[in-house]
């Protein structure tokens, strides 16, 4: 009874979630816009998220190159700057990121310079009508190809694990690009991919910063005004793990003196926000909380097997992937793999104690109270709501679900979503 009273009192004392209310509307072309005003600093942060990740690619690497080369523009006159040069040289920032699910461009604009309308038009023109001029494309293509492995088997260990764990799903395509597959991509392939997926209904815009709503409306409309017509892409199939007789084990090439061991399990899409809370907190307890996680305490602190030992939960639109990672010297690889397996199985088989659960949940809720402390952090949160089409009060709902969760419910969710017979093991040598 005392423990229950202490737990309730602790939860009531936790600070409130820092994520402010999110506004939402659609542009006249049908793109979703999500907006949070924030006036602490004179910055405007924008995220353009397109359902055009590598899982949509007909040719490996086309989704990556289509986004990375998007701001390439053939100069109309001598000395004319590239759109990306205009952004950077005016003291602003932009970045691109592509994964299995989405292609994303983020832009940070200094409002005090008064260039947001001009830059939004420049970006909007390229977003809608990229030509991918060959004279410039060859440089971007060569840069990207040099980052790709010569063969799929030589891909980074985490990428190979995703490709193996998602063997029956389009998410595997995120690890299929090689040097040659990227180097062979043509202007026509990029333009065809862009026309199919860079449409108003397939794209969302998130805006955070020191700007009134009417200016945010104007920027969003400028960015989407000339996008090619087209429907939203059909949803990818849900990840549906198929039972296998034994864990899949593969070897990989080591890229350093330490030999990494990576374990992974595919997950079906979360069916509720309560399930999501249980999966997030479970990962936090297992290996996502650094010094306080089970993996760190056992494999690093007690066994001295690895400098780091962690878990990571990637949640995508159509499913997810749980990964456990650690590295050690060659002669201790088998011991490390055995211990990772033991901790994975122990967490799946046994519910955490009430004391461990309460401590880790309190820590997680305290961390949640700091979510969105900076503009860039808040933009990430808002863009995730936008891309995953979550409710506007998603983070408040998640906090409430986390607060009412108990050890037994967490354990039940983990046993429902995490299937040990789906385990994939990749060991570097």
Helix and strand topology:
Layout: H1 2-13, E1 23-26, E2 32-37, E3 43-50, H2 62-68, H3 83-89, E4 93-98, E5 103-110, H4 116-128, H5 134-145, H6 157-165, H7 179-183, H8 187-197, E6 203-209, H9 213-224, E7 248-252, E8 259-267, H10 273-288, H11 294-302, E9 309-316, E10 319-328, H12 333-349, H13 354-368, H14 375-388, H15 394-404, H16 407-417, E11 424-428
Parallel strand pairs: 2-6, 7-11
Antiparallel strand pairs: 1-2, 3-5, 3-6, 4-5, 8-10, 8-11, 9-10
Helix pairs in contact: 2-8, 4-9, 10-15, 10-16, 11-12
Features:
single chain, 429 residues, alpha+beta, Cytochrome Bc1 Complex, Chain A, domain 1, five-stranded mixed sheet, disordered N terminus
Notes on the structure:
The protein is globular and about 65 Å long. With 429 residues, the chain is of the alpha+beta class. It is built from 16 helices and eleven strands. Helix 10 (273-288) packs across helix 15 and helix 10 (273-288) crosses helix 16. The strands form two sheets. A six-stranded mixed beta sheet has the order 1-2-6-3-5-4, sandwiched between helices. It folds into two domains: 19-224, Cytochrome Bc1 Complex, Chain A, domain 1, CATH 3.30.830; 248-428, Cytochrome Bc1 Complex, Chain A, domain 1, CATH 3.30.830.10. Strand 1 (23-26) and strand 2 (32-37) form a beta hairpin.
């Amino acid at each position: 009874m005392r423990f229950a009273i202490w737990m309730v009192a602790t939860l009531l004392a936790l600070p409130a979630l820092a994520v402010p209310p999110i506004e939402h509307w659609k542009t006249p072309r049908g793109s979703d816009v999500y907006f949070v005003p924030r006036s602490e600093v004179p910055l405007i942060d924008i995220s353009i998220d397109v359902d055009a990740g590598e899982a949509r690619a007909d040719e490996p690497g086309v989704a990556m190159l289509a986004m990375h080369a998007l701001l390439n523009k053939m100069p109309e006159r001598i000395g004319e700057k590239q759109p990306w040069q205009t952004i950077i040289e005016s003291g602003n920032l932009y970045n691109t990121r592509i994964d299995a699910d989405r292609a994303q461009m983020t832009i940070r604009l200094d409002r005090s310079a008064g260039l947001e309308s001009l830059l939004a038009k420049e970006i909007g023109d390229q977003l809608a009508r990229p030509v991918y001029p060959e004279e410039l494309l060859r440089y971007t293509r060569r840069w990207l190809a040099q980052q790709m492995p010569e063969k799929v088997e030589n891909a980074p260990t985490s990428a190979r694990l995703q490709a193996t764990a998602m063997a029956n799903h389009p998410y595997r395509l995120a690890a299929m690009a090689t040097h040659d597959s990227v180097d062979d991509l043509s202007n026509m392939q990029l333009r065809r991919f862009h026309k199919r997926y860079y449409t108003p209904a397939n794209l969302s815009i998130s805006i955070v910063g020191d700007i009134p709503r009417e200016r945010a409306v104007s920027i969003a409309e400028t960015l989407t005004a000339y996008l090619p017509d087209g429907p939203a892409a059909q949803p990818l199939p849900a990840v549906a793990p198929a039972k296998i007789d034994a864990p899949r084990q593969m070897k990989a090439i080591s890229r350093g003196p330490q030999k990494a061991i990576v374990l992974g399990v595919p997950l079906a899409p979360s069916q509720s926000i309560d399930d999501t809370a249980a999966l997030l907190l479970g990962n936090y307890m297992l290996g996502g909380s650094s010094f306080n996680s089970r993996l760190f305490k056992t494999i690093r602190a007690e066994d001295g097997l690895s400098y780091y030992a962690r878990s990571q939960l990637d949640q995508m639109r159509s499913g997810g992937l749980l990964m456990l990672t650690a590295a050690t010297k060659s002669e201790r690889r088998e011991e490390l793999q055995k211990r990772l397996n033991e901790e994975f199985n122990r967490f799946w088989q046994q519910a955490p104690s009430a004391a461990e659960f309460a401590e880790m949940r309190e820590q997680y809720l305290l961390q949640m109270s700091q979510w969105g402390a900076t503009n860039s952090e808040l933009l990430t949160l808002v863009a995730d709501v936008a891309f995953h089409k979550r409710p506007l009060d998603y983070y408040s709902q998640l906090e409430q679900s986390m607060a009412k969760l108990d050890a037994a419910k967490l354990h039940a969710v983990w046993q429902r979503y995490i299937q040990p017979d789906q385990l994939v093991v990749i060991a570097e040598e």
